[in-house]
Design a protein that fits this description.
- The structure is a single chain.
- By secondary structure, this protein is α/β, with parallel strands linked by helices.
- It folds into 2 domains: about 5-65 and about 90-175, HUPs (Rossmann fold, 3-Layer(aba) Sandwich), CATH 3.40.50.620; about 180-360, Argininosuccinate synthetase, chain A, domain 2.
- Helices cover about 40% and strands about 20% of the residues.
- It contains 12 helices and 14 strands.
- The chain has helices spanning about 15-30, 45-55, 65-80, 95-110, 125-135, 155-165, 240-255, 280-295, 300-315, 325-335, 365-370, 380-400, and strands at about 5-10, 30-40, 60-65, 115, 140-145, 180, 185-190, 220-225, 230-235, 235-240, 260-265, 270-275, 340-350, 350-360.
- The chain has a 5-stranded parallel sheet with strand order 3-2-1-4-5, with helices on both faces. It has a 5-stranded antiparallel sheet with strand order 10-9-8-13-14, with helices on one face.
- Helix 7 (about 240-255) crosses helix 8 (about 280-295).
- The chain starts with 5 loop residues before the first strand and ends in a 6-residue tail after the last helix.
- Mean pLDDT is about 95; it is low at about 170-175.
């Protein structure tokens, strides 16, 4: 790319992006602007400022985006009960559109010519960052160093740092640690021994959850309050979205909830094994389906379930800012107008059990559903005609001698 004078880099302060910051400056003879997002990944993000300053970077953006992340990205996704390939709660995927949004906004604000990220050419994140950026700023230039340079191993990156006096944290000799990504929704682990899908993860790998075996022997009960499909209170205490998720992470993690070990199909075509801790999200999914079970119309609930896998793929593949996702979100949000009430849960040794749900907008009618005398609320004779009409097409086919085996 020619004419690059300023680049906004999604900067974590870690090994990869520290190398990229220096590499961009040297390769393009350009000014580098760093953007570090606090999405609740834990630890301090402020050290990224000192690292950027040590490399001579003048414009440094460090932003607390936790509330926006949960309110505008995590909550809308959970209204759809979203799971990718039946297991993955999309913790990494849902963070990328927000980062892409801020990258292009900062590029506009600083007059930058391009944006850059540290995603590799093998992964999904390059797609998510760039699809988001192009959707929001069609003419943006994107620099993806992992697709251009020859620093194609952690060892080479570390050698690059040593040759240029770039500080690197948590080096483990010449051996790379797990590749990890964290935010308020989850923490992910890839690489190292996890590249063998037959190898069991080491117990000390997990950071947010105790093992179910070591979880308390006494169950923990919690009550979640819902308004229009979103959790607004825990045990009667009103909380902001980010506080809700952080609180659930702690409670669920202490009870051994939220671990998953998945082999997933990446958008770029390969299979990838990853381990995830999503304690709060695991509770949220179970509870949301419980409150919907009494407040959603049957066909609307089934329609949501039909559409959910496509919605999940849109997020996983990086199409958060696409017209199809935005249109589908309108339907999902409309479905949540009466998803109000409370859900009570029992958390015990890795399990989330729904023990009660109630709502002023409940469609559950005990007078109709009861196995006792319903006092005429439901005429059981009506079922005969219902069954015959639904059997009509099968009776006609059978009468013609058709057999399906």
């Amino acid at each position: 790319m020619s004419g690059i004078k300023k680049v906004v880099l999604a900067y974590s302060g870690g090994l990869d992006t520290s190398v990229i910051a220096k590499w961009l400056s040297e390769t393009y003879d350009c000014e580098v602007v760093t953007f570090t997002a606090d999405l609740g990944q834990g630890g301090e993000v402020e050290p990224a400022r000192a690292k950027a300053q040590a490399m001579g970077i003048k414009e440094i953006f460090i932003e607390d985006l936790r509330e926006e992340f949960v309110r505008d990205f995590v909550y809308p996704m959970f209204r759809a009960n979203t799971l990718y390939e039946g297991e993955y709660l999309l913790g990494t995927s849902i963070a990328r559109p927000l980062i892409a949004k801020r990258l292009v906004e900062i590029a506009d604000a600083t007059g930058a010519d391009a944006i850059s990220h540290g995603a590799t050419g093998k992964g999904n994140d390059q797609v998510r960052f760039e699809l988001g950026a192009y959707a929001l700023k069609p003419g943006v230039k994107v620099i993806a160093p992992w697709r251009d340079w020859d620093l194609n191993s952690r060892e080479k990156l570390m050698a690059y740092c040593e040759s240029r006096n770039i500080a690197v944290d948590k080096k483990r000799g010449t051996k790379s640690p797990y590749s990890m990504d964290a935010n308020l929704l989850h923490i992910s682990y890839e690489g190292d021994l996890l590249e063998n899908p037959g190898a069991e993860p080491e117990e000390d790998m997990w950071l947010w959850t105790v093992s179910p075996e070591n979880a308390p022997d006494k169950a923990t009960y919690i009550e979640l309050g819902y308004v229009k499909g979103d959790i607004v209170a825990i045990d009667g205490e009103k909380m902001s979205p980010a506080t809700v998720l952080a609180t659930l992470n702690k409670i669920a993690g202490d009870n051994g909830i939220g671990r998953s070990d998945i082999v997933e199909n990446r958008y770029v075509g390969m299979k990838s094994r990853g381990c995830y801790e999503t304690p709060g999200g695991t509770v949220m999914l179970k509870a949301h389906r419980a409150i919907e079970s009494i407040t959603l119309d049957r066909e609307l609930a089934h329609l949501k379930d039909d559409l959910m896998p496509r919605y999940a793929s849109m997020i996983y593949n990086g199409y958060w800012w696409s017209p199809e996702r935005l249109a589908l979100q309108q339907l999902i949000d409309y479905s949540q107008l009466y998803v109000n009430g409370k859900v009570r849960l029992k958390l015990y040794k890795g399990n989330v059990v729904v023990v009660g749900r109630e709502s002023d907008d409940s469609l559950f009618d005990m007078n109709i559903a009861t196995f006792e005398d319903d006092a005429g609320a439901y005429d059981q004779k009506d079922a005969a005609g219902f069954i015959k009409l639904n059997a009509l097409r099968m009776r006609i086919a059978a009468g013609k001698g058709r057999k399906f085996k």
